[in-house]
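Fold Annotation — chain and its backbone

Fields — amino acid sequence, structure tokens

___
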Amino acid sequence: MRIAVWHGWLLEGSGSNVGTARLAEAWRAAGHDVVLLCQERHPERYAWIDAHGLVDGDGPNDVTTVREPALGGGRCVLLRPRIGETLPVFVVDRYEGFDDVRRFTDLADDELESYVRANVEALRAAVAWHGSEATVTGHAIPGAVIGRQALGAGAYVAKIHGSDLEYAVRLQARYRDLAREGLGGAKAVAGPSAEVLERCAVFVPEVRRLGRVVPPGVDVDAFRPRPRAQALRAAAERLETDPDTARGRPDALDAEVELALAARDAAALDSLATRYDQEVADPSAAARLRRLAASRAPVVGFLGKLIPQKGPALVLAAQRSLARDTEALIVGFGSHREWLVALDLAFRRGDADALAWLVDAGSMGIDGADPGRSGEPPRVTFTGRLDHRYAPDALAAMDVLVVPSILEEAFGMVAAEGAAAGALPLVARHSGLAEVAGALESEVGRSGLFSFEPGEGAVRRIADGIDRLLAIDPGERQELRRAVGSFVAREWTWQRTAAALLEAAT
């Protein structure tokens, strides 16, 4: 079958980015012919992309064939819509090739109209060129309305997430209007959890009739249990030969973080994050992972965007009051990285005044932060961004993976990936995350084992949850790992997700 996919951004870095990539890959592997519209500028990084080029209202152009697909096999062509100089996003980060990256809510009406029109023309032209028989568009806005205006009602499946609702639809009436237009005209509306579909239906009641729960998947061949030292050393070996790490965060910035913290200079902390490439791992990541591989202490981890909404500061705060010594492994990138380094520094120094300033000025989401335990401070390992080549090994090295997002989430894919890799998850019990936790807890018959109540006092409850998981007998913990890993491999795979979406589209 010929399948068109519209996605507004990249193929790495966020759940929807990764999910789009895995879906296209799964469809291609199943023998389908896929045209994928997105803003990814490095198609050469993906072995399943057979050709790539640009597309506008006049159709595809500058298409380069990378490989000829095998006889009878699938194919994927990536086309990058020409949208101009502005890239609208839900959460601001740096994007290669775009100097003007702005929140959807900050766009003028004419800028929004121009962006939507360019994508409508590109999708319409790509579908006509490709002869697409099914189309899937990403996000309540802008993907759904782009599908509606490009192809007409009933000609596409709209796939919603959570960021589209929380960072655009909920905030401005114009996005609620666009969501109603796009979602109301879809053949079906797919959401990763029942919770996010109901949240969307508050704004677009038609979703209750059109909605289908289609959980995202996990690459269970990549995310699998491995001994910690083996996993970390394997990742370190690959990082040592990765030339891109030279562009990552230099260790010398730690001294500048210290100066900015002493001066209580929020602008300086923010500016430090712009002085290196956040899309790559730190130059010292390999050495840090090798050190961690030699530690005998349990590893408590976080993997995700380093922004306040994802709650990484809660993990550092909770580590201070655990009943046993642990290592913290913080994997990710984002504008809040230097604030987290400063937070770790303040904790290690027992500097209550610095902590109070960081919590207030940095929107840390920590209540009642204090320096915590006395004695040798817990170790914290930052790596920068670890992409799909390294993330499975990082997750396999974690005894407990904390997913403390403050933002309402549509699902919680990282928790599923962690469970598949052998890390016992501890997730905030809200939104789609609660459904993930509930499914895993039901599988092992232990209500509340993998979740904590968010809100005021969450740091203490996260610490209690980590202590609870680490106190379980090692043999029983291994059985829990096997049980949740088997559940993910059975229920949450990209093959199942791809099949369910294609069924909804045809």
